[in-house]
Structure formats: C-alpha cells, structure tokens
Design brief:
The chain has 447 residues and is mainly β. It has a single domain, classed as Methanol Dehydrogenase, Chain A (8 Propeller), CATH 2.140.10. The chain is 1% helix and 39% strand. It is built from 1 helix and 34 strands. The strands form 8 sheets. The protein has a 5-stranded mixed sheet with strand order 1-28-29-30-31, with no helix packed on it. It has a 5-stranded mixed sheet with strand order 15-16-17-18-22, with no helix packed on it. Strands 2-34-33-32 form a 4-stranded antiparallel sheet, with no helix packed on it. The radius of gyration is 20 Å and the shape is globular.
Length: 447
Amino acid sequence: MTLVLILVPPRALAQDDNWPQFRGPSGDGHVSAPRFPLQWAPDRNLAWKAPLAGTGWSQPIVWQGKVFVTAAVSDSTEKPKKLREGARDPRSTFTGPAKPPSDVYRWELTCLDLATGQVLWQQRAAEQAPGIPTHPSNTYATETPATDGEHVFVWFASIGKVFAYTLAGQLAWQVDLGVYPMTSNLGTGSSPIVVGGRLIVQNYNEENAFLVALDPKTGRELWRADRSKGTSWSTPYIWHTAARSELIACGNGKVDAYDPTSGAPLWEIGNFPSSFSATPVATRELLILGNNGPFSTAPLWAVKAGASGDISIPKDQLKPKETAHSDAVAWWRFRSGPGLSSSVVVADLLFVTENSILSCYDTQSGERYFRERLPEAKDIVASPLVLADKLLYLDENGRAFLIRAAESLEVLATSKLDDVFWASPAVAGESLLLRGVENLYCIRAAK
C-alpha cells in the first residue's frame, strides 16, 4: 500500500543533487563540488533526523529531492551488533548460525523528502522468512538500492528477489534470482549498479555464483556470467579506461573483468587468499583492489589498463615481499589490503582503511607514505567520501574525521552523532545523509 504524506513543489536541481547508487554516481565516493557543512553535532547543522524501523546497512540513495532507503522489519528484530561485539557473539563462528530464523520479516522500501525528512511513501516488497541466516553484525537489508532516474531497483539477496519501483512507488516488475548459502553464514551485502542500460546484480555465494545483467524496464535477463562457487560481498565496479569501460567483479579467490554491455570476459586474475568485501577503486591507468580477512595475507594489487586473458601470477611467485610487479600488474603489496571499508584515490594518492588504521600509498609505485591509527577512532566499516582535497571517514560510533588528502596524516576536524554507523554516507547537493541503526540523519547548513 502506498502512503503519501506530503507533496513537494518541483524545483530546479543541480547535477550533483543526485546520488543514485552505492558510493555515488561514479561508484568511488567522489563528490564533485561539496556544499554541505564539514562539521556537525546533534545541535549543529542537523537539518532533520528520521527514525528507521527494522534494520539495514544499506546506504540511502537520492534522486530529484527524494531519498530512498531499505530495511528488513520483524516484530522481534534484533539490532545489529558493532563489529567487535558481533565477533564475540557465540553465534559468530566459522560455521555461523545453523539455520535462518523462522520469524517473518517485512522487506521495505521507504521514500522520504530530502528537504524535510518526511515520509512520502513506503512499499512492502515482500513479507516472508529469510532464506539464509546472517551474522549478528549484519542485517537482512545490507544491499544499497540503485536508480536510473525512472525506477528504483532493490535487491534483497537473503530472499533472492529484485524489485523495481517507479519514483512514485508503483511496482514495475520483480524477478526471483534464488537464495543461496554464504560462507560461514555471514549474510549478504553486494549492491546492484546501473550502467549503460543494464542493471547489474552480483550474487557470489557457496552454491550457485553468478553475475547477471537485467533490463531495467522489464527485468528480463540480458546476459549472465557463471563462475565457480565462492562468496563475495563486494559491489561491482565500472572502470573507465582510455580505451573502454570494464565491469569488475571481485569474487572469492578471483577477480574478473567483463564488457558491461555483452558480458563478454575481458581478463581475470586469481590466487587471492580470501573473499572480497571492499569495492575496487581506479585511475584511468590502474585498477586497485585488495582484500583482507582471517588467514589472509591481505594483498593489495594495481592492475594495468588494457589487460586481457588470464593475468594471474602463480602462487609460488607470490612471495611476502613489500612490493613486486609483473607485465600486467604494476605492483602488489602484502599485508596492505582494505578491510570492510572501500578505498579511495585522490590524484596520485591511495587511501586504505583497516578497522581504525588509515594507510596512504603512491598509486603509481605502491610506496607507502604512512600507516597510522585515526585518533580516538573505532572500527570503520562505512566507505569514505572524497571532497576535493579532503577525505571524510565515519567510524561505527558516529565520529566523523575530516582529513587532508596528503602524504602525511592531518585531521582537520571531527564531528559526532550518537548512533551506530556502518552504512556509507550519501550526498545530495547541500545535504549529507548518514544512516545509523536508529535514525537517518540529514546534515545541512541552516538558512
């Protein structure tokens, strides 16, 4: 049922007022011209906060003054735990929960007015029990929605369904892609993206791993790339090189590049020691990717543009050196890969986080400039924003760090909200949106 609470007159919108998918228009957290306040508090530059029912780590997205956010709601919903609390939970083991909960959840998409935070409409996409269990720190609505300006696409992997809604909240179509187990029952997290008239959904799991392109207007399958089983939580990434655009999909043990229009394979690189959580980042010349996890050597790789075929390096050549290279790989480093938060590139500088530790590298050589813990920071799961020559990081305790993008660590300012934050920030013109466990917050200067 659609519930309309308020109507907002149309207004002229700037190009950067939209944030259509995970990590924004370019998928890398870059904000072209930041206009929101760079410091805030509960009594400073907080335009509104809207309470959120249920749970979800999905990032809000924005289109033409409308904010879209997903959640999974049940009468016995348990709030997700912080990273270390979840790791200490008895249910957090290498096997995870034995089975999914029997509770019926309501998977919801809510549309709010960016100006006021008031609910414009809310749709219940599904009402059923989850098909798989999840980790105490994860949720059943961790995948960020995406929009092409005509529809909002919602992927709930724990029930295996994709939904497409109009911007007015009408269901246009839905597709069932199936529910499959994830490694150690850690739950799902890979978000859909829209590129070149294709809706791309990555479903890398322990039984039937695949990457699929759907027609945004109908949900019809346009192409599918199957791969060997293996879980991944990384969101697909579009790498724009000088010669072509490549769809990058990071899976357990292997990374593949495809033509986003046809699904034709372009290149692959293997021998990664674990699954991926972070999304890659790139310059025109280099794709930088890495992973981290238990028993992992935490590799960080820089792949050269123009690669083709299998560019894997044999395992016996992957020595735990500080840095090395090959014909197709500009450099790689061990014990340098990102944790849950994705990396960012600013000019020739690469910034990587693992928990509360920030590292800076030269993108061309892999040389490390610094590796330091952010003062007073707790675990960082949310992916950062690039604000011209500054970076914005948000830890799970709600402390934000404004950092100069430079070869040495310089914290310019900090801000704080009292909530738990794993979702990545979203930006819409003069507004910054932060999704916590309890509320959705809008940071905006008073006028």
